[in-house]
Amino acid sequence: MVWADGTKRRHRLGAEIGALGAAAVEAASIRVGIDRARRRLAVLLHEEHHAVAETMQAVLTSLVFEGVFERFPKLRVVIMEGGLGWIPSLSARMDKHWARLRSEVPHLKRPPSEYIREQVWFTTQPMEEPGRASQLIDLFDRIGWDRILFSTDYPHWDFDDPRYAFKAPLSEAQRDQLLYQNAQAFYGIR
To answer: Closest Cα to residue 186, out of 25, 13, 12, 10?
Structure first.
């Protein structure tokens, strides 16, 4: 099921998804396309392609601050095709703002990063390629290895081949966790 934002008009949907034990998925192309059509922002593929992370930040911020995760604690959301590099900084910024402006969101009982850590998963596509391999490992550590689902986006031009996607030395256990074990756990496949 696709989820676009945290507005109250979608709360019934959140209740149903959570009750079913299903997952909501937010795909970048859906939201970017909506934003582009509405505001005529991106006219080049480069603009659209690079705006995906901003779009995903807006979606996740809306889901958290509108209280979707507080209201539906069994709801699980996968953020797809938004990259990963922005997640730690957004989580930290949201926590800081929540602490300072709690009166605006009295329905949130915990810091935003806790909802994200417990109820949100992220796909790897497009894979981050930082300058140093250690930075990718640090990024995975900060997000949580168990919250990352590998995705290729094949057959698109920028797909990530699982043989070459990770530009850092991973142990076999880490590769297995990212390539298939996390997805097995998330979807209940054994």
So the answer is: 25
